[in-house]
């Protein structure tokens, strides 16, 4: 097949998977077939009942596809292992608890922290020292059927460097986190995606910048104290 393959939105926008497939190459897309893409989940369940399929009453999966009933944390623990580290508050550096390894956490994560006084969100990870920084600033990624208009400017890399795109959203979204994918669409066609390197608010400041700045400080003794202005 010489013609390029297109990744289209499915009939069921709630269950649509194009966001997760948006980074696939043309070579990979040409080998894929989605026979249920034109059907809604309710229609699929109805057909499963009519044909008396063994999985007709199976509940929707809330975990990672193809892992079966194993939880994500158990899967990660089995393949990577555990290493105890500390959880610190990003603004103050206060010790708030311990964790089993930074790889169990994602930026923006709220669930699973099990800490009092929340809600808490993961805002930074010190990979070298196995430290997880949390804050009460909301900084997470949302996934769902809603789209946002945007403009995209591609800055071509030089000397073999990868291209970088600057994206301006039509509305504010505090749920953008570095390391996540941003997928782009034209009509019902998914054009592709890229990894978010950093996000900025409408004032030009990095999202969660203060929390990240304090999290990286070596000396936190002056946090919370007034600044001295010398003229």
TrEMBL record:
Residues 74-136 form the tRNA-specific 2-thiouridylase MnmA-like central domain. One of its GO terms (molecular function) is tRNA binding. It is an enzyme of class 2 (transferase). Coiled coil: none annotated. Its EC number is 2.8.1.14. It comes from the Eukaryota. This is tRNA-5-taurinomethyluridine 2-sulfurtransferase.
